[in-house]
Amino acid sequence: MSARTRLAAHRGGALLWPENSLRAFRESIALGADLLELDLRLSADGRVVVVHDLTLERVSDAQGPVGERTAAELARVRLRAPDGSLSDEGIPTLEQVLELVAPSGTGLLLEVKGPTPRDNVLFERVERGEVRITPGPQYPGLVESTVAAVRAAGMLDRVNVMGFNPDAVRQARALTPPVAATFLVAAGHVTLVEAQPVDAVAWAAGLGATDVGLEHTLASAPVVAAAHAAGLRVGVWTVNAEADMGRMLDLGVDVLTTDRPDLARRVLGR
């Protein structure tokens, strides 16, 4: 495991700049973020585009589902800044982000989203207290298209495919060569099935993931120790308060994901 906690700018630094925008990614690279975290969906014309929400209302001046617009149309919407004002930024494609990031040494955490409003996974407690994790719907070919774009950019060793959907993790790890992959677990998932936070480590390991990505309230010394003992890296999200950042640093997590990369940089002593 890495002895150094790496700083990941969540959606490029969503409390500082328009989220998932080229400006946010450019600014976070300049700030010295080790990683950029971004969200991936498919446009109406099958392009991989970088946007978190299923619909456009919250993040832009447009309305309606992301998947009903072409990549060219999405590029023309105006993304909102953190204060709600409209910026000159549009929704980029993954290829545009890769072109921006390639000359730097920055890595990418690529969260694969799904075509439904929920987080595309169902947790259930079944007989003998076992937990069954059922994948939800996926965008057809999104993982494959994502990795193909990354491969074409020569950046396979700098990316990590992330998802709440177990199938996204399995697909990334089944590729040749296998791509690093994070299974994401929210606190609500653990509570729903009356599990313990450390159980998330076993869930991720069982999928063949290289990393477990935890809502930061799940992280503790035993959880981090269990993950490292299992050969998994630990990422935590979304850590925006200085006290929480300090606690995560003390725990020795491998990746700290935050909307405030400027604050995290100071806490990490950069």
How would you characterize this protein structure?
There is one protein chain. The chain has 10 helices and 11 strands. The chain has 270 residues and is of the alpha/beta class. Helix 1 runs parallel beside helix 3. It is globular.
Write the layout of secondary structure elements.
Layout: E1 6-10, H1 22-31, E2 35-42, E3 48-50, H2 71-75, H3 94-101, E4 107-112, E5 121-125, E6 131-135, H4 142-152, E7 159-163, H5 166-174, E8 181-185, H6 187-192, H7 199-206, E9 211-215, H8 221-229, E10 233-237, H9 242-251, E11 255-258, H10 261-267
**Helix/strand/pairing class, anyone?**
alpha/beta
Strand content: 15-25%
Query: What does the largest sheet look like?
Result: 8 strands, parallel, barrel
Radius of gyration: 18 Å
Order of neighbouring strands in the sheet with most strands: 1-2-4-7-8-9-10-11
H/I helix tally: 10
> What is the tally of beta strands?
11
Shape: globular
Order of helices and strands: EHEEHHEEEHEHEHHEHEHEH
CATH C-level of one domain? Alpha Beta
Terminal Cα span = 20 Å
CATH topology name of one domain, in short, is: TIM Barrel
CATH superfamily annotation of one domain:
Phosphatidylinositol (PI) phosphodiesterase
